[in-house]
Amino acid sequence: MLKIIAIVLGIYVGIVVAFESLLGYFQPADQSTLVITTIDANGEGHDRVVAQLRSNGQLYVAANHWPRAWFRQVSMNPQVQIEMDGVKEDYSAVVVSAGEHDRVDSDNSLGFVFRLLTGFPPRYFVSLDPM
């Protein structure tokens, strides 16, 4: 029985790694996404396609996946560039507090299948304020 559980768990981890890798490689974009440009510790810019979320008229993005370098970069340097509809603007990115997190999460819930395919990572939200 333990061997079967280990095999099933190994297959599941493989599916999660494959799904996350494909998402990171292809970075699918549409009208519900934006491109966030963050700056790393070396001063280099990095682009990442993320879903744009709204709650109470405010713009947010979420770290919904295990790979989240962009989120760590935002935590170190909140000055980012956002490209929406072909227009780039400077924004300040602020990690939300617990109460705001619950509201934004409730307004922008994820489906079970998506959470399953991503391995149930913790979800963090960032508020985006134009500069």
Please, could you describe this protein's structure?
This protein is an alpha+beta fold. The chain has a single domain, classed as Pnp Oxidase, Chain A, CATH 2.30.110.10. It contains 4 helices and 7 strands, in the order αββββαββααβ. A 7-stranded antiparallel β-sheet has the order 2-1-5-6-7-4-3, with helices on both faces. The longest helix has 25 residues.
What is the strand and helix layout of this fold?
Layout: H1 2-26, E1 33-39, E2 45-51, E3 53-55, E4 58-63, H2 69-76, E5 79-84, E6 87-95, H3 98-107, H4 112-117, E7 124-130
Antiparallel strand pairs: 1-2, 1-5, 3-4, 4-7, 5-6, 6-7
Secondary-structure content class? alpha+beta
Share in β-strands = 25-35%
In CATH, the architecture is Roll
Tell me, what is the CATH class? Mainly Beta
Q: Helicity level, as a percent range?
A: 25-40%
Could you state the order of secondary-structure elements as H and E?
HEEEEHEEHHE
Mean pLDDT: 93
Biggest sheet descriptor: 7 strands, antiparallel
